[in-house]
Amino acid sequence: MSGDSMSKEPKTRPDMRDEYDFAAMKGGIQGNGTHIVFSSNRSGTFDLWTMPSTGGLPTQLTSDAVHEDYPAWSPNGAFIAYGVVGAAGHYDIWLLPAAGGQTIQLTTHPSVDRYPAWSPDGTRIAFSSSRVPPLAIWVMDLSAVAVAPTTRGSIKGQFR
């Protein structure tokens, strides 16, 4: 198109006009306000990304074949809780060190466990669950879980 003023520069911020970048709807701002985390399918599947809140290039945190969304920073900024839709269609809550690394599966119930939110002191995570219809808010005490690097599924059964 002649006279097209659209820039072909690489994206430096999630663009709300893009159908699948939902930074405002599926993400959060780090406690100190320096970074945002969001879910995007810019890599082909919905993965977690982070970037400076002032702009810049995003950094991919996860690269799984599963759908990851609704990330929430821990109050101290060290962890990100988020939802995962696994291959069997189950929705569960997972935990990721904000700097990257091994993830920890926090829920394994066959119901829909989604939309994690941290307590102000970072010791609990509230989430929506369909365990007992209708949807209800459940609270998970993180002191019952050893938050250490692990592989997916190694603490299954801790939260049912």
Question: How would you describe the overall organization of this protein?
Answer:
The chain is mostly beta strands and 160 residues long. The chain has one domain (27-144): Neuraminidase. The chain is built from no helices and eleven strands. The strands form three sheets. A four-stranded antiparallel β-sheet has the order 1-2-3-4, with no helix packed on it. The protein is globular and about 45 Å long. The termini are far apart.
State the main characteristics.
single chain; 160 residues; mainly beta; Neuraminidase; 4-stranded antiparallel β-sheet; disordered N terminus; disordered C terminus
Give the SSE map.
Layout: E1 27-29, E2 35-40, E3 47-52, E4 59-60, E5 67-73, E6 79-85, E7 91-97, E8 104-105, E9 113-118, E10 124-129, E11 136-141
Antiparallel strand pairs: 1-2, 2-3, 3-4, 5-6, 6-7, 7-8, 9-10, 10-11
Instruction: Please report the first level of CATH classification, the CATH class.
Output: Mainly Beta
Q: Kindly report the CATH topology.
A: Neuraminidase
Q: Averaging pLDDT over every residue, what do you get?
A: 74
Outline, from the CA principal axes?
globular
Q: How far apart are the first and last residues' alpha carbons, in Å?
A: 56 Å
Oligomer: single chain
Largest sheet: 4 strands, antiparallel
Name of the CATH superfamily: TolB, C-terminal domain
Decide which structural class fits the backbone.
mainly beta
Stretches where pLDDT is under 50 for at least 5 consecutive residues are: 1-25, 146-160
Helical segment count: 0
Short description:
The chain is mainly beta. It has a single domain (27-144), classed as Neuraminidase.
